[in-house]
Amino acid sequence: MSDPSLPTGEYAIVECLGHRTLVGRCEEVERFGTKMLSIEPIYNGELLPAVLIGGGSLYAFTPCTAAVALERCHKTEWDLPVSLRATLPTAALPAPEDDPSEFAPAFLDEGLGCDDDGRRSDG
């Protein structure tokens, strides 16, 4: 039985070098003259663009159903490894809770000893 919201394919929980765990749709591909794992991580119920991982970087590969992968997937931005967070499309990022521009004037008005160009002034 597969989850109707995810495309068909082989799903797995992948543990790899760097203490990273990725959950998503997987396939073996050949790139750069070597076999690699191509995984489309699931984030917030959607597949992200594929990440390629060399076979020697794998600690564990646990096949699972799409439903299990969806249940175990990364649900918040901070669950994702840093390299994946950096590539998230803007639409996938959560809306900011506060408008950072509202803090800027107060911060600048405090006179923290910096010139307009950000260099420290001593007087």
Task: Summarize this entry quickly.
The chain is an alpha+beta fold. 14% of the residues lie in helices and 34% in strands.
Structure description:
With 123 residues, the chain is of the alpha+beta class. The chain has a domain at 10-89: SH3 type barrels. 14% of the residues lie in helices and 34% in strands. It has 3 helices and 6 strands; from the N terminus they run ββββββααα. Strands 1, 2, 3, 4, 5 and 6 form a 6-stranded antiparallel beta sheet that branches. A hairpin with a 2-residue loop joins strand 3 and strand 4 (46-47).
Features:
123 residues; 3 helices; 6-stranded antiparallel beta sheet; alpha+beta
Shape: globular
The helix fraction, in percent, is 10-25%
At CATH level 2, the architecture of the domain at 10-89 is Roll
* Beta content: 25-35%
Taking Cα atoms only, what radius of gyration do you get, to the nearest Å?
21 Å
Count of alpha/pi helices: 3
CATH topology of the domain at 10-89: SH3 type barrels
Element string (H = helix, E = strand)? EEEEEEHHH
Report the structural category.
alpha+beta
Main β-sheet description: 6 strands, antiparallel
Oligomer, anyone?
A: single chain
Number of strands: 6
Low confidence ranges? none
Overall mean pLDDT score?
80
Measured between the Cα atoms of the first and last residue, the distance is 71 Å
Identify the CATH class of the domain at 10-89.
Mainly Beta
